[in-house]
Amino acid sequence: MTEQFKMDAPATARRLDDMAQGLVGAPLDRPEGPLKVSGTATYANEWQVEGMVHGVMVRAPGNSGRVVLANREAVAQMPGVLAVIQDPRLLRNPAQGTANQAPIQGPEQAAYLGQLIAVVVAEEFEQARHAAQSLKVALENGEVMPVDPATAAVEPQEAKTLDQGDLDGAMAQAAFSVDVTYTTPSHSSTPMEPHASIASWDGEDLTLRGSYQMLKYNRNELSDALGIHPDRLRILSPYVGGGFGSKLGIAPEAVAAAIAAKEVGRPVSVALHRQQVYEATMRRSETTQRVRLAADAEGRLTGLGHDARVSNLPGESFAEPVLQASHFLYAGANRKMSMDLARVHRLCAGSVRAPGEAVGVTVFEGAMDELADKIGMDPVELRRRNIPEKDPESGKGFSSRRFREALDSGAETFGWADRPGVKERREGEWLIGYGMASAARVNVLMESQARVTLMPDGRLRVETDMTDIGTGTYAILGQIAGDMMGLPRDAVDVVLGDTTLPPASGSGGSWGASSSGTSVYLACEAIRKQLAARLEVEEGDLTLKDGMATFDNQTRSLSDILNGDEIAKVGHVQPGDTSEAVRQATFGAYFAEVAVHAASGETRVRRMHGTFAAGRILNAKTARSQCLGGMTFGIGIALTEELAFDPRDGHVANHNLAEYHIPVNADVPQLTVDLLEERDDWANPLQAKGIGELGICGAAAAIVNAIYNATGVRVRDYPATLDKVIAGM
């Protein structure tokens, strides 16, 4: 019943190139789109569960000390209040992505200001909120804990250290060199839908309706936190209103809802309010990054260095992997890289969209622009000259790479040849500048399963616990299944987001579509084989289109062949030797035009273009949408987004949408995207690679580089707010 496949060798069949239905790659609409825009798609906190009551989380007022609920008994007597819970199983912070076990637990000791340390449950939400706000939280025996990454204790990350050749010698002998330090602030994922869960028990069995990205891991994390077997736990997450990494691991509200529901004997809903989302979910770590580049007289890199300092809570192993793309993006024989992890008592750092490259490539591409300016070379040409033939550190080949084509195509589409010199173009009070940057993101295949059932009436059902966080999973899996089985898209039902279904890769790391899509592909391939066996023909000689099978000059309907039966198969893909045999990555290039006000330093992005290569594009519309979203995030990184921490106690000072400035409609011009044709046989049988995060990796650098071209001001402290720009002018 299960079709097992391990990716140990290149998958060269490329079957999806010739499927008669022609669904894969087409810019089809998302089938769940009408439900979402009409308000009928049920999100985590919208389920109506009989007898449901409400819980509101309570925060720690400091970052150290033993937590004491001073007036607990009085609050418990307030109208409607059912329980005031401070349970040792409550989470200190969310689990990291793919953790597969509970994160640090225990609300008795505060580790950061804003930590969720208790939950108040009441009949009505307003009663629970009032009681939670009335609860007086005291911290005993607290100390002044470090909150500043610049002065906190550091742990060198030895596993991420590289020293190849002689970088110091290369810098000393270079015809041109740069040695620059950039800083980037913390970012928040800021999904539109806050974190929310509804927990209900049936005896010893728990059902959790939650907003999560990676259900097979989330179930194990939640079961570990509660001390129950995973088989007694079901998570439902059919619709997720954005995650961007913040919903990868199980979060405090889910555990609180489960504990509370058990204690009060009724279903409990717990939703974080917006301030709690900013204070107690996941942040991207701030970074301090030093980049050193050494080049010969012709602009070829002879050495490069990338050193970073990031931060996290004590006890957390995650360190923002800013060096990832620096290992393979450009050539250079002499290479040195290192990372330090500072231990601070701020909210937990973890995966935020495109962890690592989102800020690592951004900084490196700023340094590359500085080198191009020093040499007097076109920034596009500098990058062309330094594309390595093979991975510059391991010597492995690239699985596929259309990096040069992305640079050339993007430059032509944008009109890069018309780029002015520094401070050469002005329109009234506005200084006009062009900037560009490269895009790169590692590619990963993850273990994933899906069940596909061909029904007696010829319809198809796809089932997996995979989630759709707004990325188009419902559409893509239906397209793959429809193509493989020769059925129109509306004859394929896709069911997602339920842990009773086969465990998928989950949505994260840009691996979701290719990993879960491969499992669907494998299941369909197994069904095709069984159909061919019934017809006594070779599977490769079977053509399926519009619900009909053509073979040996005969045509029969699928329902006729099934004769009242159904065929169900599970596809199961596992990563194999191809993950290590070659360097797998996606590539692209950004081009931006900005206008900077000569008097105020205000920057407006006037146009922006991205060209990307990410293997087979499974749906041109959803892929383009992902790139648009990434570039929009890049505008935020470049100009507006920054979590501000109080230097006294480390709390988030701008914990709301009014003061954490994500780009809004007025900030985003008409963005354009080109997707290059590509197949990567080393990636998976679909020849597809991840694209969800590629669109952000370096996007901000194109904008900040354009600010330099317009004004001559080099901003090395992100975001490039007007005060920093005007100070240089």
Automatic annotation (TrEMBL):
Keyword Nucleotide-binding set for record: no
Chain ranges of the Aldehyde oxidase/xanthine dehydrogenase a/b hammerhead domain: 38-143
Keyword line: Plasmid
Source domain of life: Bacteria
A Pfam entry, by short name: MoCoBD_2
Keyword set includes Chaperone: no
Protein name, entry field: Xanthine dehydrogenase family protein molybdopterin-binding subunit
Originating species: Sulfitobacter faviae
